[in-house]
Amino acid sequence: MMRDGHRLASSATRRLLSRNGSLRTEGGQLWIEGLSSRELVERLGTPILVYSSARLRDNIEQAIEATRACAFPIRIHYALKACYLVGVVGLVREAGLNVEVMSEFEYLLARRIGFAPDQVIVNGPAKRPEFLERVVTDGVALMNVESLPEIAFLDALGRRLGKAIQVGLRINPLPSRHLRGPFAPPGSKFGFDVPTGEAAEAVRRIVRSRALSLRAVHCHSYTRQYSPEAHRAHVASVVKFVRQVERKLGIRIPVLDFGGGFGSRSIMEANGGPLRSFIAKMTEPLAGLSGDREIVIEPGRYLVNDAAVCLTTVLSCKRNGRRRWVLVDGGRNILPPRKNAEYAVVPCEVRPGRMLYHVGDFLCMPSEPIPLSFVSGPIELGDCLAVFNAGAYTFSMAQSFGEPIPNAILVEKAEWTWLYRKRSIDEQCRDLSGHT
What we know:
Lyase, Ornithine Decarboxylase, Chain A, domain 1
């Protein structure tokens, strides 16, 4: 994350904690709903990933309200890759949201959690044939295709089954350079580029097929985007493409799936506005599109990221050159180092002082999962730090590197329940030896 992004994440964390909300400071220490961080650490140890059910539910409600305020019908599909924890995803399902998956594993997980096939959107640049046949047979809400071989396989499958298969088509409209997201460089592994004519040709292939029906156009260009102008340009490019192919081919595409890429709620609001105004701005280009359309968005990070905090203990304090370091037990096994991470660190107990600390983990790797610093009074061995914005792409990307994947819990009011229990060394050895 860029330095400006760190400042924004830190400022959003202070704003989040300054309110009388589910994550707050009280009596000089951090509280997650009705439980203090000190109590959780004494009971369960560190590192530990702690989700607040109240913050998660509030984020979900904000997303639902944002779609209701829009002039167009919007269907929300939670991006399952953001967090696999069943207790977290279960709350998303209970709130009435749908789900988006990128693999057969995610599809089976979503079904096990309780999502019906018609609540599932299937994405992914490459899918196994047996997976494609499974979701067609089950009758998922939408399957977005991304290659000509995939179109050919589904065409043959539809003819074999004697049924018309509804599909979506992932396109890359490639707006101006300064508005392109990291998922949309020319010639990427995703979808079909519009400027080269490949997207239009893919539409023609589907339209010519007697076994396929083009239900949707899908486009995903961004990750943790806080500029509605970027999303607006993305929508405008899709609308332009849809108008062109509908006019030339005499068809109508009823669903427009704009993917995800929304940033964390607390940072979005610190950056200037709620999701409601963001979506209102991004959907402006739809005003000139004829006929009724259904809009799909696939948020993940927005819903879960600021709903969780990773509590971690200081194992070592040192000075090296001009830097003052604190080294913690929360490593890349639960906080994967990613360019698009939004981690922000604060001490769990407030102490007066203005010393600058750099944060590192305990592993023998030169890059840090938390390339952050914070200002505090003196920090000592055994102190606890809180890493905010730890709810998305942490557990789902976690690994047993250096240590097993740590515990994760869900807090509701003054109670907590297990989301995941760290595996013992015996369990780890059985896994690594192949024995059951």
